[in-house]
Amino acid sequence: MDQLIQLVEASEARNDFPAINPGDTVKIQLKVIEGEKERLQAFEGVVISDRGAGGSKTITVRKISHGVGVERIIPVNSPNIESITVLKHGKARRAKLFYLRKRTGKAALKVKARKVVEKA
Question: How many structural domains does the chain have?
Answer without folding.
Answer: 1
